[in-house]
Amino acid sequence: MAETLSFLTMGLYFGGTLLFLAFLLHRSDVLAKGAIFVAGAGFIAHTVALGMPIIATGQVPIMTFRDAMSFFAWGLVLVFLVVGLKRGLQVLGAFILPLAFLSLVSATLAPVEAGTIAPVFQAVWIHVTLSILGTIGFAVAFVAGLMYLMQERLLKSKQFNVLNFKLPPLDFLDTLNQRSILFGFPLLTLGILTGAVSAQLTIGSYLSWNPEQVWALITWVFYFVVLMGRVTVGWRAKRAAYLTIVGFAGVILTFIGILMKSPQAIAHL
User: Fold this and answer.
1) Which of 55, 134, 168, 269 is the most exposed place for a label (fewest CB within 10 A)?
2) Based on the structure, what is the number of domains in the chain?
3) What is this structure's pTM?
4) Are 213 and 98 part of one and the same domain?
């Protein structure tokens, strides 16, 4: 049943993605409403699929690569439904829903045994959850940065087409970018700290300095610099957009690399 719901979710997210992309190119409220309806239906199916293992086992289904990517996709769609609909920014769905769909595809294509955490490390579910929530924040910052660069290029070229009018104002996108980083960075920090503490309690070492851990720390330092630049130096607009796009690429590589590795690598993040 859960597997059927997962495939149904993936199909609905794909359908919603196509509708949202069509919405970008056409002045049609019908397309937007249809896309939101399909995405909402997919989110409901996704929620049920994630909730069934919790009810059956009493455990959070987040201990494998598949589960983690599915939770990541679910969180992205939740952000869209809350932020996008509250602000009337249906256009966010055209960027967030494809990302959620690709996350589910990667989860489906991954080997069943990939990234499974051994029983001794089951307590690190808090660490994994926090890390994924932080990644969701960075994903939204990435989307905001991407839309900012698109809108700025359209304005500079004076190409006032359908896309230009559907993308949010530059100031809003810049604010969304900053707030998303402010949301994601503390969560990623807590995720790293809880992982280190869990590793110390289970294997007696906070860090083993393997490539995954080193890259995760580099990513943390990168976002720390970006955050400090935004808060203290006043980095805004184009520079921040480029940096968050580059940073998110690093986050995804770290996230996938660690979860596809051994249980010990996950525990050490």
Assistant:
1) 55
2) 2
3) 0.85
4) no
